[in-house]
Amino acid sequence: MSAVQNWRAGPGAALRGTLAIPGDKSISHRAVMLAALADGISRIDGFLEGEDTRATAAIFATLGVRIETPSSSQRIVHGVGVDGLRAPAGALDCGNSGTGMRLLAGLLAGQTFDSVLTGDASLCKRPMRRISEPLARMGARIDTAADGRPPLRIRGGQALVGSDHGLEIASAQVKSALLLAGLYAAGDTVVREPHPTRDYTERMLSAFGVDIAFSPGHARLRGGQRLVATEVSVPADFSSAAFFLIAASIVPGSELRLLQVGLNPRRTGLLAALRAMGADIHEENASVQGGEPVADLVVRHAPLRGIEVPEALVPDMIDEFPALFIAAAFANRPTVVRGAAELRVKESDRIGVMAAGLRTLGIRVDETADGATIHPGALQGGSVDSHGDHRIAMAFAVAAQVATGQVDILDVANVATSFPGFEVLARGSGFALEHR
Ligand code: S3P
After folding, report:
1. For ligand 1, atom 13, which residue shows the shortest CA distance?
2. Given a cut of 90, is residue 424 above it in pLDDT?
3. Mean pLDDT across the stretch 152-174?
4. Mean per-residue pLDDT for 23-43?
5. E strands along 20-135, which residues?
């Protein structure tokens, strides 16, 4: 894990510029995983060189997959085939990444060898029964530590059988773990979701030649299929772009252009919420890149209105609530979030940690079990703890730009898990942001 670092941020001036946001984290993880399992050599362009995705790539190297790095945003993966992974010598370290651990658990459940998945202190607090239990119904043997937490001990050599899963939680990670196990199962694996989530695993399995039927909220795949190597083009990560959408919206005089951002409808709930709040965001130069809709996002400062965030939007903006809480603090009336209990089991308890930080800076937040009401006000300087959560750290760096005093943000090293170039891009566009 990275050394602890802290930031001193804001107050700043108008933000200006044209920014290239790094590649999508969810797609980068899946690209390495499927390329490793494919027959042949796959090329990945636009790969996110963050700590989370690097951890996944390093795990596949340990499992015997040769991965070349011609440049930081490219990977050439020499696939070993679905049955070609090698037993690892020791535990596999997923770092901070829930996506890495949960998807790998599904994939490793179908191998002939045993494996152990572990991670950092934050990941080792996150719930894993949501994958170990449905995988067990397919015949997988996965032991968790106390209370369903990592490390995960996965027993190889099990004969997996396809199953029809009706999920209670809307989670792309759970869905993806089951589909990856389904590759190794006899018969069909079906996943039905309570609300549609990001479908990158389904789309990418299809791009790698797997016969999979999917529609929003539903996927079905037959076990025993092979994957064929392909080229993957990873769009810019909407979740990283989100911090600049909020920053330019709240800092007076700002105008930013974010180049060719991925706009998969299962990821862009925040765009809908911000537009309902009165944000000035335009899409230009729209196209399709690697099967994903992309466009430049041009965002200008605009006065924001408080809203009740529609619950149906929650899964489509699940990673954007730290940023949304900041927009809400600068709106004209309270913003209400409901139906978002999942936020409590992300890299940190994102309801509790955001509420604590905002309160420290003078903003009233009423917490509920599954959401919060954020009461806008003047945001003062102070010291907030990100609890090692990358998105909380970046959210407060944004808020600080319009604070009345400097904001110290503690424990920000994990920003490199998803957005290694954040500081450079932020300062280049006008953020007041330095280490301390
Ligand atoms: C992800 C799914 C979401 C999201 C995470 C990435 C993925 O998690 O929060 O950042 O890549 O599948 P859940 O499946 O736990 O909702």
Report:
1. 171
2. yes
3. 98
4. 98
5. 39-45, 66-68, 74-80, 92-93, 115-118
**Gap between the Cα atoms of 328 and 344, Å rounded:** 19
Active site residues: 319
pTM of the predicted model, to two decimals? Answer: 0.98
Ligand 1 centre to CA of 398 (Å) is 23
Q: Give the pLDDT confidence score for residue 2 in this predicted structure.
A: 55
Cα–Cα distance for residue pair 140/163, rounded to 1 Å? 12
Tell me, what's the pLDDT at 64? 98
User: CA-to-CA distance for 414 and 358, rounded, in angstroms?
Assistant: 20
| pLDDT higher than threshold 60 for residue 317 | yes
- Average pLDDT of 260-283? 98
| pLDDT tier at 290, thresholds 50, 70, 90 | confident
| Residue nearest to ligand 1 atom 9, measured at CA | 319
380 close to 396: Cβ distance less than 8 angstroms? no
Q: Which domains occur in the chain, in start order?
A: 7-23+235-435 (3.65.10.10), 25-233 (3.65.10.10)
Contacts of 24 (CB under 8 A, 6+ apart): 46, 48, 234, 235, 236, 237, 238, 262
Which residues in 255-353 belong to E strands, given as ranges? 255-262, 280-289, 292-300, 335-337
For residue 50, report the phi and psi dihedrals to the nearest 5 degrees: -100, 170
Pocket lining: 171 vs ligand 1, CB cutoff 6 Å = yes
